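Example record for the data management plan.
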Amino acid sequence: MAYTRFLLRRYCCNENLCIAVKHILAGFHSEKLFHCHDFSEIAVIAHGNPHHLIGGRSCSLSPGDVLLLHEGVWHAYGNVAELECVNLLYDPRRLRKEYPGLEVFSLFQEFFPEGDTGRSPLSPILHLAASDLSRLLELCASLKRELNENRIGSECGVRLIFGQILLALARWREQTAKERKHLSVVDAALDYMHTHFRRRVSIRELSEMVHMSERNFYRHFREKTGFNPTAYLLRIRMEYAAAILRESDDSVSEIAGKCGCCDSSDFYRKFKSVYGCSPRDFRRGVEGKGEKSNG
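Corresponding structural encoding:
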């Protein structure tokens, strides 16, 4: 454990705490220098787009990515010119029992493993939004100050701040998992819309189908597609109408009925809102292009 003791002496005032913070600024990280630890490390990418390298494999990283590496993992970073990272060093064996209550989170067994977790250390354990990354970096800075100032009660302060960091990461990971679940649920609504667009489809019907409130469904749908449900349904209908206009001689009133519009005037208005021209002008444009290409 000589390397651990060296790091603890260098990056904190009390090596008995088994916790240290190592902040590496851009321009100070070695390129592709493979190394391993005799401690655990939470690495937070604050800036740059490095490559994480393990055993001939590579993973591209970006600001907000959080890596978790345990003892004996040989790794390195490439493309480090702009890399700024904050590394939290700790001894999981000595700290595992210090944070009762964290066991309810799936990430606890990864922070404090007992045997092989089955997780690859190459990829991040989570990716943080800009606001969450800013909050995490603030906590890391507070932890570093508490480690370096050696005030009365510093041992308690260090353990408390490190616990805040672990709790924040665990909660963000749970929230990310929930968001992914919600977005996958939206896929079921999308499939339904693409299949049943010819008839009236309401937000209430879709939200009930995926067991979400209308407000949550609306928000997650927009995150997934970039459109609100009404606008997305309109585009499905008008894209279908445009395909019929291109490929058939059906009348406008026939097409209006096939794409779920009330009547021809409703179809005209909606088609123009999407394509910027009337259905007839759209068809003439298609035919005109066809005539030119044939000549």
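Summary line stored alongside the record: Residues 154-196 form the longest helix (43 residues).
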